[in-house]
Amino acid sequence: MPTPKPGKPVRGSTTGRPLMAALDLFGRRWSLRILWELRGGPLGFRPLQKQCDDMSSSVMRQRLTELLDAHVVHQLPDSRYELTPLGRDACLALRPLVQWSERWAAMLDPQPADRDSERPADGTSRPDAVGDGTPERGSAG
Hints:
Helix content is 44%, strand content 4%.
């Protein structure tokens, strides 16, 4: 399946509207997870795969190829992957969704035993858990 791009028909839409292309790109399994894990800085293939719960190499390769082709991720000379400015913008655009997800989780289970593995044992909130964009390695979002 070709990389979704604005101006071209994509899954679920023949209009080529930029939003529809973005929804197709980021709606593909593992795409958002790769983006999320790279928000803290460059990672090589294996460390990124580990951060993504050991997803299969073939799926990761396919998603990275699509994200590279879409100019959301780029590969450094040392073979690590990092977000492009567009990729960083996409992460910023996800902040409201992160904040909404926290409110949603709290509404569904206001007294969770261990709802948020992102929250440190002392109960304080981690910066990225509220979507301020401060990267913290090892969180899956």
